[in-house]
Amino acid sequence: MKVRNEEKFKGRGMRMCRICGTSRGLIRSHKLYICRRCFREAAKSLNFKKYG
Asked: Which of 11, 12, 39, 47 is deepest in the core (most CB within 10 A)?
């Protein structure tokens, strides 16, 4: 039997951006868990380089 709280926190709703808290447009690769909007602002400080 599952607990109601477990059902609430599954899938997308469980993963949120570390900076702003949204669950949309999340970058999970390299265990970043940062949304794409925050990534654009923080990419340079995370040592990512822009190519192209």
From this structure: 39
CA dihedral 14, 7, 5, 15 (to 10 degrees): 0
Residue 13 or residue 16, greater confidence? 16
The residues pairing with 35 across neighbouring beta strands, listed in sequence order, are: 26
CATH of the domain at 22: 4.10.830.10
**Is the four-CA dihedral 21, 27, 28, 30 of positive or negative sign?**
negative
pLDDT tens readout for residues 18-27? 999 999 999 9
CA–CA separation, 3 vs 18, rounded Å? 26
Q: How many domains does the chain have?
A: 1
40-to-29, 43, 51 alpha-carbon distances in Å: 15, 6, 13
